[in-house]
From TrEMBL:
Residues 29-43 have a biased composition (Polar residues). It comes from the Bacteria. Residues 1-24 form the signal peptide. Residues 107-236 form the D-alanyl-D-alanine carboxypeptidase-like core domain. One of its GO terms (molecular function) is carboxypeptidase activity. This is D-alanyl-D-alanine carboxypeptidase. GO terms for biological process: proteolysis. InterPro entries: DD-CPase-like, VanY-like_core_dom, VanY/YodJ_core_dom, Zn_M74/Hedgehog-like. Keywords: Carboxypeptidase, Hydrolase, Protease, Signal. It comes from Paenibacillus algorifonticola.
Amino acid sequence: MSMKRTGQALTVLLLLFAFGCSGAQETVSPIASQSPTNNTNTDDAGETGDTAVQETSGTIDDLLVVANPTAAVVLVNKQYSLPEGYEPQDLVYPDVAFTFTEKIDKRMLRKEAADALEQLFAGASGDGIQLAGVSGYRSYDRQKTLFDNYVKKDGEEAARMYSAFPGTSEHQTGLAIDVTGADGKCAAEDCFAATPEAGWLADHAWEYGYIIRYPEGKDSITGYKYEPWHIRYVGKELAKELNERDITLDEYYSAVPVSEKR
């Protein structure tokens, strides 16, 4: 392990220890106790910092709340939640094509992620690949509305199998976006995996600071099925490391497993 990597690990441990000694009832492990899930994320289809966590009270499944939601490398999943009502303060409209024309929330990303997305789209275009955005930022309230509607339709247990509980959607960070080909076909659908656009993203997204957040064969770790269209900005340095080591953001923080499915 390199000195740099060791320093990062020590920083994480110190941050976790600090929260365990400053108001939380007990020291929090980065691995939460959770029931087995096999979830599909179909909602609204269409830096090198570290993550510290603290326990929440009165939340389903004893979610942990991230201490630094603005970090580009923040871990948000079925264990780690954003603070309730969190909204990024630097949301902008990236100058890229989308599958719709309206200037609405899901067209936005945080500034750093938006700039990187513009470069990614330009790089893809230079290689003959035309991309389009499908869904970027999603507010807590929007996610809650979606989730509540799914609960009314299918019941909570079933809804949690395909929809992110409010506060645990990566889209709320403003750092994640679903993309597709310029023709809009296979948008947020399994058939996207077989497209040239998906292949290009798998090979090149990391060069622009993005990762395939829910890669194939990692559903037992991420808690979500393979989503080749869902890319997440983490910065070039970390994206390069995750690509070289072939690991997820969850594995990077040793926050596994999310699901007990093997």
